[in-house]
Amino acid sequence: MAWFILAIAGVLEIVWAFSMKKSAGFTLLTPTLVTIIAAAASFVLLSISMRTLPLGTAYTIWTGIGAIGAFAVGVAVLGEAATPGRLIAAALIISGIVLMKLSGGQG
């Protein structure tokens, strides 16, 4: 269950990062509110997953989900560049997430 909660926390990190981008520096109300709510929920769920999972594993996977998700949303939705270097960097992050999960020890 901790892994599922952590995954939801990671997805919410993508939501708040995207909403923050759309908030235009917190000048637009709706995306600002989505950012605040999604960030708070993401932190709460991360903390719940850390009751069971090791700190290093949970935090690394949470930030990795957010980083890869934000990159994917940036490319797919915002038209950001998917250069070979950025794709290699994303693949390395994914590799790190998988290795961290496989060597996590607990959970």
Write a brief structural summary.
The protein is mainly α. The chain has helices spanning 2-22, 29-49, 55-76, 84-102.
C-alpha end-to-end distance: 8 Å
Beta-strand segment tally: 0
Spans where pLDDT lies below 50 across 5 or more residues: none
Return the structural class: mainly alpha
Percent range for helical residues?
over 70%
What is the succession of H and E elements? Answer: HHHH
Globular, elongated, flat, extended or rod-shaped: what is the shape?
A: flat
- Structurally, the number of domains stands at 1
Count of helical regions: 4
Give the C-alpha Rg. 15 Å
Beta-strand residue percentage: under 5%
Largest sheet: none
Average pLDDT across residues? 94
Written account of the structure:
- α1 runs antiparallel to α2, α1 (2-22) packs across α3 (55-76) and α3 (55-76) runs antiparallel to α4 (84-102).
- This protein has 4 helices and no strands.
- The longest helix is centred in the middle third of the chain and has 22 residues, at 55-76.
- The mean pLDDT is 94.
- The chain has one domain.
- It is mostly helical and 107 residues long.
- It is a multi-pass membrane protein.
- This is Guanidinium exporter.
- GO terms for molecular function: transmembrane transporter activity.
- One of its GO terms (biological process) is xenobiotic detoxification by transmembrane export across the plasma membrane.
